[in-house]
């Protein structure tokens, strides 16, 4: 027996000495206790089994326990497959986020611990999203970066984010390879040419061998999606890239088919009947799943009563059933330019659960009374049945709010806006941050080709619904907290001061005055300062990146952006599983899943939400690229109004407000003069004409170049003077 094993045996009583393993501790805790001993030396799995007194037939139990502990990040495996505690050997477990340039950051799984910087040469064969173990090679105090950060090197990949990669087939003189669609996957993948795949096809590749970063990974084409420019292939590639499920399993559809399409008398029994009240829905033009409805009453003395009525999906989707399991697996609906991938089958999402007008629907209602100042006096919750009086689009609601009321609908809507405006004013006075961003909707033809873009503003009609949903969500979260009922909360934790300090430097680089951003009031002041400026979009994006990502958790940790101590998602159970889980918690109280089960669900749906958001953004970006590729091929390309948002020595960074798209006008395309960059003034100045380009200037542009692989679009300024730079006479020799 070697010295390490004998030392460990001295430190722990063997099973023979005890007669049996302690019933008070699991094998995992025994292993951790062993590794925490002061005299512990790194042991392999056989030596650990011997040290704990496990015989040869029981070693498989030890192997499985070691695997689970390693996957959980509680122990780490080093050279010669020996095990240690991560902290004692400067090892960190986390998820790797890779930048397009090749370097990455490791999100430490330990709460409160900072991220680590991973240089490109230190990522090994890890790819974006992989869960890895990294060793710290330069502590934070020795960091040479402007923002000090510990540096690390990946030493082991615990699990791949995905086994497959979506990309485009290309060919060199000697071999075929696939260029990944995700620019964060920085290595091309060598493949064998298949009989079906052709150059330029979108394909799905299974990554097989990759042992060294110094050679490219190898893979096998497992699905050919079709030519990159073929109709529907772009969206299909997004679906495959993010592993989005298209079809529902047969068991799910069978369970859905068994649910009736109408609300009968038996379903209404025991519910509060609100069918006589004037209740309306307000949704996007093309929405088909209406999961929220509202009504507002103005009471005596300036008080208010708000009713928020949410589709009672929990009345149809039972815990543990096929519908429930599939809804949890999907986590949420995904909204792509040419389709919706629903969380629930359409029989429910667009049918009996959708609050369609003039039909009975089962709902879960929140009734909130406010005083004249918008303070909540009381809240009540009830299972109800409603019959929506009107289905309004946001455009219709906005038009009604912009004109004097002419009928009951107009009067009711104006009354609702009075309360919403009061709540909105109170919310921002309490510290809520105005982080709303306009959106762009892609309009496609029947073949999926983008034909135009519609900018969706956060006008009064959107704000009305937003304020009422926020009020209902907060009331539900407050009630669940008061009851101490295990539930899933929507949390947005306070930002790291270091990230805010780094963002402050970014703001200062735009010649804006800004104070300490750890002070919420200063963040609000900054947002007010940049409103309507050329830099607003870029600075808001920068702020969002400096904040933590909102997620789901089983503890009410508060919501920083909304400045709320208690917050949950309750108002969209047709498209979010979190809301369905909250409905059940509010309704049942006692018959709820364990905290461990809820925690696993919260983590899972946080991941599906991130994947859905990335897929939606990716799809819109691809449609924009496709639109401008078509513009390039047009004989008379369309002109767009653009605003200069920044100026560099290589050109103008512009934004097309109508499309929420940024691009570059390279200085080489400004052919009417030779332009010199003035860093102090942040201007490009023509040497001959003295023409100046400044931040905030508006220019007319047309597309000049589209790079599908880098996902970049370059533009050129239209209507430049045709005369070139005036030159002096040629010298005669």
Short description:
Helices cover 30% and strands 26% of the residues. It has 18 helices and 33 strands. It is globular.
Secondary structure layout:
Blueprint: H1 3-11, H2 15-18, H3 27-35, H4 45-51, H5 59-71, E1 76-78, E2 82-84, E3 91-98, E4 104-108, E5 116-118, E6 131-138, E7 151-159, E8 164-171, E9 176-180, E10 189-191, E11 201-207, E12 218-227, H6 233-241, H7 250-257, H8 265-268, E13 272-273, E14 280-283, E15 292-298, E16 304-311, H9 322-330, E17 334-336, E18 339-341, H10 346-352, E19 360-370, E20 376-387, E21 390-393, H11 394-401, H12 408-429, E22 439-444, E23 450-456, H13 460-483, E24 489-491, H14 497-508, H15 520-530, H16 536-546, E25 551-553, H17 577-588, H18 595-633, E26 640-648, E27 651-656, E28 661-666, E29 675-678, E30 683-686, E31 692-694, E32 698-707, E33 712-717
Molecular structure report:
The chain has 733 residues and is an alpha+beta fold. It is built from 18 helices and 33 strands. The strands form 10 sheets. Strands 5-4-3-6-7 form a 5-stranded antiparallel β-sheet, with no helix packed on it. α4 (45-51) crosses α5 and α14 (497-508) runs antiparallel to α16. It starts with a helix and ends in a 16-residue tail after the last strand. Mean pLDDT is 89; it is low at 1-25 and 723-733.
Features:
disordered C terminus; Arc Repressor Mutant, subunit A; OB fold (Dihydrolipoamide Acetyltransferase, E2P); disordered N terminus; 733 residues; 18 helices; alpha+beta; 5-stranded mixed barrel
